[in-house]
C-alpha cells in the first residue's frame, strides 16, 4: 500500500500504476445483498435456477455492484494522509466489458492519470481496470474522480 502525504508525492505518481488489489470472490450472498440494497432483483442476478438455464449458465454480478467495489478495492492500494476526507466525486467512461459469473474472483488495477488542485480540494483522476480471474477481458473499466478535502 502506498501512503500519500504530499501533493508532490502524488504528482510523481501521475501516469503510473499505483497498485493491484487482492482477489475478491463474489458469491451469491453478496449478489443477493446488493439486489436487496438497490431493489434490482433482475432474474439473471438472483434466480439461480433460471440463470443456470440461460446462456450464462449461472447468475451474474450486477454491473453497478462491480462499480461499487472500486472504493473497497482501492483502499488496499493507497491511503491519503493529507486531507480530512476522501469523497467519490464522479465516474467517466464506465464500461462493463464481460459478464461476471457468481463465485468469480475480481481484482483492481489502478493508474493515476492526473491531479488537479482547486479551492474545493485535490481531484485525483484514475483509470480502474477490474480484472476477472481466468478471463482475457476485464470485467469493468472506469475512469473515476476522487476529491481529497483539506
UniProtKB/TrEMBL annotation:
It comes from Imperialibacter roseus. Residues 12-119 form the MaoC-like domain. CDD domains: NodN. The lineage of its organism: Bacteria, Pseudomonadati, Bacteroidota, Cytophagia, Cytophagales. It comes from the Bacteria. This is MaoC family dehydratase.
Amino acid at each position: 500500500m502506498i501512503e500519500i502525504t504530499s501533493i508532490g508525492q502524488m504528482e510523481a505518481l501521475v501516469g503510473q500504476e499505483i497498485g493491484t488489489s487482492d482477489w475478491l470472490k463474489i458469491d451469491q450472498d453478496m449478489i443477493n445483498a446488493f439486489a436487496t440494497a438497490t431493489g434490482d432483483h433482475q432474474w439473471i442476478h438472483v434466480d439461480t435456477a433460471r440463470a443456470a438455464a440461460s446462456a450464462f449458465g449461472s447468475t451474474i454480478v450486477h454491473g453497478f455492484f462491480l462499480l461499487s467495489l472500486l472504493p473497497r478495492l482501492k483502499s488496499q492500494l493507497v491511503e491519503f494522509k493529507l486531507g480530512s476526507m476522501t469523497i467519490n466525486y464522479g465516474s467517466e467512461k464506465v464500461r462493463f466489458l464481460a459478464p461476471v459469473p457468481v463465485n468469480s474472483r475480481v481484482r483492481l488495477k489502478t493508474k493515476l492519470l492526473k491531479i488537479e488542485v482547486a479551492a474545493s480540494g485535490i481531484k485525483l483522476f484514475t483509470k480502474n481496470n477490474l480484472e476477472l480471474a481466468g478471463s482475457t477481458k476485464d470485467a469493468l473499466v472506469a475512469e473515476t474522480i476522487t476529491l481529497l478535502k483539506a
